Automatic annotation (TrEMBL):
SUPFAM superfamilies: Cell division protein ZapA-like
GO process annotations (BP): cell division
UniProt key word Cell cycle: yes
One Pfam family this sequence matches: ZapA
Organism whose genome encodes this protein: Candidatus Avitreponema avistercoris
Keywords: Cell cycle, Cell division
Protein name, UniProt field: Cell division protein ZapA
Amino acid sequence: MTKPEGLLQIDLLGTSFALQTDETPQYLDVLYNHYKIMLKQVENVTGGSDPLKTAIIAGILVTDELFKEKQKHPANPQAPDLNDVEARALRMISRIDQVV
């Protein structure tokens, strides 16, 4: 079964929902798989007893990766604009809140 363009089905930590975005399915798969890896790492270290804490810690780790990468390439015109990243994150959070 193929996913519609820009649809990301989230099934993590006991919750399930879909996000509609402007991104390609390939990009969404890479993004989602990277986040799932981070979640698994956090669960392994913390025991994964609290899904909310696990999700927050994984989010902080992903953000840490972003900032470290930006520090390596401060003049890189290809680097993501943090305002754009923040705006996208807020839109996704808003969509999640509507579903949950």
